[in-house]
Structure formats: structure tokens, C-alpha cells
Amino acid sequence: xxxxxxxxxxxxxxxxxxxxxxxxxxxxxxxxxxxxxxxxxxxxxxxxxxxxxxxxxxxxxxxxxxxxxxxxxxxxxxxxxxxxxxxxxxxxxxxxxxxxxxxxxxxxxxxxxxxxxxxxxxxx
Length: 124
Known about the structure:
Shape: globular
Number of helices: 2
Distance between the termini: 41 Å
Mean pLDDT: 83
Low-confidence stretches: none
Largest sheet: 5 strands, mixed
Radius of gyration: 15 Å
Order of helices and strands: EEHEEEHEE
């Protein structure tokens, strides 16, 4: 049986909840979010949430974020898992941050969590 790779050489993986994710990093992070819900550290999370990105009122494209997390206080956060960044993703992230300034955009890498708004590593 042949294993299909994507152009970024990641393999689809299943998390413990049964969701299929495009990468192992995303599947592992989904498992972590599930544990945080059970521990009541966060209220909930949704995966693969789409946001329209508009310029002068016209939809240019959609940005599908990996996770929309609702914190204990009800605040929304976007969590994006990344092995490495691309120019397309960087552009979409910047457009998202400009159009949705009240929603923190947090990038999760294999090495840790980074907040794109400050560029500094987030404390746990």
C-alpha cells in the first residue's frame, strides 16, 4: 500500500476523538485541547473554522484556521498549528489580524506556542 504525501510532506492523522487532521502536529494538538476541555481549562474548541477575508467589502478569500478555542472566560482565540510558514499563510494571517483584531491569533509549533501579535513565546 502506498502512502500519499502532500506537497508539504505531512501525513493525515487521526486524533483520539476520531477527527482526521492533515498533520500529526494538528492531531496531537487536538488531543491536548480535548484534555483541556475535560480539565475545564477551556470551555470548548472547534476545528477547521472558516473566516472570510475582505478588502473594501469584497470577499478576497477564506482563511480556514485549525482551531477556534473558547477560553474559560468566554473569550475566543484562534490556534493555528504550523510546521513552517508559507508566504500565502503569512498574508492570510496578516489580513485576519487586521480584520479581526479582537481575536488573538496563536501559532502552535512543534517547539512551542507563539503569539503572532507580539512574536514572543507565550507563558503556560
